[in-house]
Write a structure and sequence with these properties.
Layout lengths: L10 H18 L2 E2 H11 L8 H13 L3 E7 L5 E7 L1 H26 L29 H14 L10
Antiparallel strand pairs: 1-3, 2-3
Helix pairs in contact: 1-4
Length: 166
């Protein structure tokens, strides 16, 4: 079951744009995973923060797709670090995705600024009909109470019989 859109929930938006952001960071200069994490944490927006456990599988996926290339190098304190750089294929895809992203964000901004004309198609919208004889949705569970109330009212105040053939 899908959950409803929440105001502070950027996970879907981040998921759709993180590859573009990582490629953008690596285009400037090759870097290792933790430095990319720190750049996102320190230089980015507070709503665009990732845990390292999320970032490393993403780097491996980009490497499998040949968008980035990684090489092990000896870092500080003689520890092995994996340095990532953008490949020519990654650069080409970055440019392509950047253009798509710009078109997409422009389209969303246009739609958010659009105000539809009123009234719709020149006619006011009709209110939905409410029929007490046919309860629907939530009211179905109150049908027994409705029938019981109608019977009580008819017993308490009986209606005169009209137009009966004699």
């Amino acid at each position: 079951m899908k959950r409803a859109f929440q105001t502070n929930d950027f996970s879907e938006l981040k998921r759709g744009s993180i590859e573009l952001v990582i490629l953008s960071l690596l285009r400037h200069h090759p870097n290792y995973g933790y430095a990319l994490y720190a750049a996102l944490r320190d230089g980015g927006h507070p709503d665009f923060v990732f845990r390292p456990q999320t970032l490393y599988p993403l780097l491996h996926r980009l490497e499998r797709r040949a968008w980035i290339a990684g090489a092990s190098e000896e870092g500080r304190q003689h520890r092995q670090q994996r340095i990532y750089r953008v490949t020519p294929e990654g650069e080409r895809l970055f440019q392509q995705h950047l253009q798509q992203w710009k078109r997409f964000t422009k389209a969303v901004e246009t739609l958010l600024a659009y105000t539809p004309p009123q009234p719709y198609r020149g006619r006011p919208l009709k209110e939905p009909r409410k029929s007490p004889s046919k309860p629907s949705g939530r009211k179905k569970k109150y049908a027994k109470e409705y029938v019981a109330d109608a019977l009580l009212k008819s017993l308490v105040a009986p209606q005169p019989l009209r137009n009966l053939p004699l």
